[in-house]
Amino acid sequence: MSTKKIQDQTNFLKVFGIAILFYLFFGVYNLKAMGLDRYIYLMNLVALLSIYSAIFVFIRSEVVKVKPLILTTFGISLVFTITNIILYKEFSTAIFEYTGSDSVFYHETAAFLSNGNIATNLDNFLRLTRFGYDDSGFLLYLAVIYKIFEEPLIVRLFNVLINSATVYFLYRIARQFLPQKLSILSALIFGISSFSIYYQSSGLKETLMLFIITLNFFSWYRMRKPGNKKYVILFLATLVSILFFRTVLVAFLACSYGASFFFKIKSNVLRVLFAIVLLAIFLGSILYLELINVERYLNATNMATTDRETHSASIFNRMAAVLAGIFGPFPSFIPLGDNRDTVMHAPSLILKVFLSPYFFYAIYIALKNKFRELYPMLLFSLCHIISLSYLVHTFKLRNQFPHLPFFILCALVGYYYLHNLETKSSKRNLIGAMHIILIPIIFFWNYLRI
User: Fold this and answer.
1) SS3 sequence of 107-171
2) How crowded is residue 144: how many other Cβ atoms within 10 Å of its Cβ?
3) What whole-number distance in Å separates Cα of residue 91 and Cα of residue 107?
4) Which of 125, 148, 219, 224 could crosslink 231 through cysteines, CB 3.0-4.6 Å?
5) CA 278 → CA 257, 259, 271, 364, distances in Å?
């Protein structure tokens, strides 16, 4: 066995060991207090063992291929989607997420739209969305399915299939930057992640939205190769489609793709003008998000509430939001109170947390080596993180979900360059020090929430 393979296994087993210790410590400490929620805790522990075992098998394999990647993703996703639905039914008397707010809204609205001719209901379809066009794409998708099947469980099966397709295209994207094995691992880590499975089983729009974003990145990279101009149509179609899922992401994608053209401009004057345009798009996007944020507060309470939230967010919360945006959101291991949904993300979130330092090493490598093909995914992730940090929305994984697969992919690019091409041990020591610092942060994040 090669030294490199032993190192990869050792690094992964360290994260697995830390995750198990956290689960056992907080689980034993709070087992009685959890009550019936202990079943959620135990299911998460089973998910942790299953997910990490699958990843470890791929790490140990001498030869890894795409077919086992897709089959493993589909199998694990299907099994835990079913178990999640059983838990939703047990704890919320419905087959939706625990809170059920948005998923129930999607279900009821789509069921209404599917009655009669969907095309003639388009006006109602747009009028019934909560925040403009942001939900309309998913509602149309649901309405078409309900027109045929009238069964929300079928949507979950479609979600599992869509997630498997997303994993395939993530692999195809990663293959341009990483060797075969790490490309498959980058797709697998996201595809069977507990947070990806949560959204497949919840009835929310994230699974389909992320598939479209991934397809948009895939078509971008494909159409830039000679003789692949046919992908321009797919690129434009997916970009327009994203408008009807989360509108502001189109602006972030435009900034990310624009950076590729920025470095091709030879005139300094044109470079400055182009940079101003990109900055204006980015700042305008944040303003748009801020206006939506204020509108939600106004709908829920009043401007006084908005003022209090904005003031409190400007001090400690905003600093914590930046930390959560960069390294988190940090996992919560114990289902106490109303955090059942966030607890479902924990098995894979801890791996994402420890991959985070490698993402920033990937930024360093991309800038140092002028690795411009990586810029779009790096910038998309950074634009999203910065905007969410400003709005103090980084604590909720649903907000961060659109950039997570690309964050993980870039992090593994950083990991590959650090452990294969970096000659100085100081950078590896720095990453190791960051990992050591993250352990007590995760501990106190959970301890203070008990």
Assistant:
1) HHHHHHHHCCCCHHHHHHHHHCCCCCCCCHHHHHHHHHHHHHCCCHHHHHHHHHHHHHHHHHHHH
2) 14
3) 19
4) 219
5) 10, 8, 11, 21
